[in-house]
Design brief:
The complex is a heterodimer of chains A (221) and B (254). Chain A has 221 residues and is mainly alpha-helical. Chain A has a single domain (3-218), classed as MetI-like fold (Orthogonal Bundle), CATH 1.10.3720.10. Chain A contains eleven helices and no strands. Chain B is an alpha/beta fold and 254 residues long. The chains are: A mainly alpha (221), B alpha/beta (254). Chain A: Belongs to the binding-protein-dependent transport system permease family. CysTW subfamily. Chain A: The chain crosses the membrane at residues 6-32, 44-68, 80-102, 147-169, 195-213.
Chain lengths: 221, 254
Amino acid sequence: MNGEFFFPIQLSILVACMAAAVSLILSVLAAYRTVMTDGRGSSILETVYLLPLVLPPSVLGFLLLFIFGMNSPVGRTVELLFGQTILFSKSAAVIAAVIVAFPLMYQSVKTGFAEVNGDIVGASKVDGASNWKAFYHVVLPLAKKSIVMGVILGFTRALGEFGATLMFAGNIPGKTQTISTAIYVALESGESHLAWKYAGVSISLSFLLLFLMKGLDGRRD
Amino acid sequence: MRKRIWQFLFLIILFAGAAGCQSGEKEETVITIGAAASLKSSLLELQQQFEREHEDVKLSFHLGSTGAIRKQVEQGAPIDVFLAASKDDYDSLYRDGLVEKGDRLVGNRVVAVTNKPEGIQSLKDVWKTDEKVVIGNPASVPVGRYAKELLEQSGQWEEAESRLIYGKDAKHVIILMDQGAATVGLVYNSDVESEHNLRIIDFFEEYSQEDTGYYGARVKRSKHQKGPNEFLDFLKSKEAKEIFKKEGFINIGE
């Protein structure tokens, strides 16, 4: 019983960790590109980045199901390569979580990059730093706080992801059932005490993370 | 350098192959049942019984709304057996050639219930008051569609329409009543079983309700043949019928 109870919690945390890692790389790259190009020609791209923030998760789930489904070339290619479909797998849960975590992380990282004083970057280049070196040794460290906040925000969002996950990764206990989908089933089948327990875990985890972020935000450096 | 990469790739393929063989040697097959979430408690009981009798087959459940599971089967999600809470969803998949011929496994009845201790004895009484009535949304929820049909067939739709509230699924209908948004609701008989504060005021006895219930079929794309068929046969067995009956479902032919 205990293993059964804790599985969705472990899986949610695992999925959120992986999703946060992937989104971090993507959002640093995307934010770097946006800041470097001064926003020229990137307004459409930026809109696309932010779309998952406002789309209903069930729509995202439906799109993912369609893109990776057996009727699409993408879905068939994946099956050919790996011998099984990505639907109803842990990878599907991670993909869904990345998509919802990304916009939040991107926003935060972009703000961080934009706040870095251009003169400092310029000075490092005068001293002979390449674009990459200036970015790695100057911009990244100066934007650290925003990046960390973005990671926490994205992680917390990934932790609570429900709609897209249910549609795309399924809801199989011991395989793809996360805290959110476990709550859904518990409510549907009238086990409100179980739903409350999971809700408690979910609220505590999210509270803790957001509290951590608030603390970080208030710190002057 | 390039040689290294090839060696590395080769090793990965080797490991993947070995892992594949290992899982192939396992004698246990795991089959995934995509089922309406309202079946959960029955399914857990059925699973115990079934796995005791079939040691080589393990069941895993994917629970959701029937409409969503239908979409997932359409897109080739790895589901072996589809257990639908509505005839339409099963029919549609069968028509598209995505599931094999299945059966109506167990019946159910839509009944009218109230949580008001006195005053309302039948649906007719409701129309004399200004009480709200909650049903599932007929556009998306099977129990709502059946409820609408029953109200139409019994000539009460006109009176009902102005006081209707729509719930997003069968459970939500009951939650709305618990929260006091309505005092009368149309729900499945099987949902009333565990709700002690609800009193049935109308069984709609004069209507046969031939479509309500659960439909089961093997998904054609499934890689397993034996497991799904054994499970579907089991659902029609005497033991399964007893479990269904206990949960408030109505067995076919009773």
